Amino acid sequence: MANGKWQIADGRWQMANGRWQMANGRWQMANGRWQMADGRWQMADGKWQMANGRWQVAGGRWQVAGGR
């Protein structure tokens, strides 16, 4: 993942040196594995998927559906 700040309409995201924080939920990172309390996240070779929302990342690009 590239270092940068991410923001979403449904929630505020922040990234710093591989650390992520979400206002609406708690995030944890361990060896490239992510877990969310309010939703199910999975990472595989840079691919992300979320159960409660439509998230997709490909080649470092993020897309969110149902947002401003």
Please, could you describe this protein's structure?
This protein has 68 residues and is mainly beta. Helix content is 0%, strand content 47%. It has one domain (13-64). It is built from no helices and eight strands. A two-stranded antiparallel ribbon has the order 1-2. Strands 3-4 form a two-stranded antiparallel sheet. Strands 5-6 form a two-stranded antiparallel ribbon. The protein is globular and about 30 Å long. The N and C termini lie far apart (23 Å).
Global shape? globular
Q: What are the secondary-structure elements, in order, as H or E?
A: EEEEEEEE
The N- and C-terminal alpha carbons lie at a distance of: 23 Å
Taking the sheet with the most strands, its summary is: 2 strands, antiparallel
Helical coverage, percent range: under 10%
Poorly predicted residue ranges: 1-11
Structural class by helix and strand composition:
mainly beta
Please state the CA-atom Rg, rounded to the nearest Å.
11 Å
Task: Give the strand line-up of the largest sheet.
Answer: 1-2
Number of helices: 0
> Mean of the pLDDT scores?
50
- Compute the number of structural domains: 1
Topology, number of strands: 8
Strand content: over 45%
